[in-house]
Prior knowledge:
alpha/beta, seven-stranded mixed sheet, three-stranded mixed sheet, 10 helices, globular
Amino acid sequence: MSTIISEGPLLVSLENGVKTIIFNQPEKRNAINSKMSTLFRDAVLASEHDDSRVIVITGSGDHFCAGADLAPSSSGGEFDVSQFLRSTYNPLVTAIRNMDKPFIAKVRGNCVGAGFSFALACDLLYASPDAKMSQIFTKIGLSSDGGGGYFLPEKIGYHKAFELMALHEIITAEQAEKLGIINKVVAAGELDDYVDGIVDRLINGAYLAIQRTKSNLRAAMSQGLEAALEQEADNQGLNFKSKDFFEGVAAFLQKRKANFKGE
């Protein structure tokens, strides 16, 4: 049964462990305004405690997210953007990375500015061939936000990231795949089914081990080898005591598919 959590400019639903968050301002290519940002932050933070096991972020219509809706902030100095970022974007982006649940970005069309940063924050990123991606901020006299200055060099290195960001280059889905920015380009008509298949594998796989794999990777990326080794030791100790581990070993020895329960 599907539970509708939010309607309007941000659509949020939860069904069978899958939370779907949809930017819903298609007439503006899903540019995200202050209200949407607050709803998005709340939807992401709520995932820590609700029944979601995988969170899919996407956009309605033909686009993912064209970044911030600039119309309300055209007054410039009257808007405290630093406070807004600290209270809204920053906590939602850190939650995506720090929460031991998989986040998937499903991208079509424009994925630029903050929208690109949100997609980069996710654990998996799949896109249709028509997707266009850019840290486009410098085109209008801004620098990056939403974690783009961290996530892009994390994926492609400092020098290429600086080039793409400083020159506000727009890259295609194919280019993004070659650079290692996204996991896979999937034909537009097949993207939904493909992502559904990934979601199914995550939810029905060894879910506790998958969560702890994210934890291990986070420790490695943020703190280095020694922290990663320590985190792996702690998590493997927990895995060894889980019912999923015993089921996995039994299934391997019996040459059958494992029936993981997340226990």
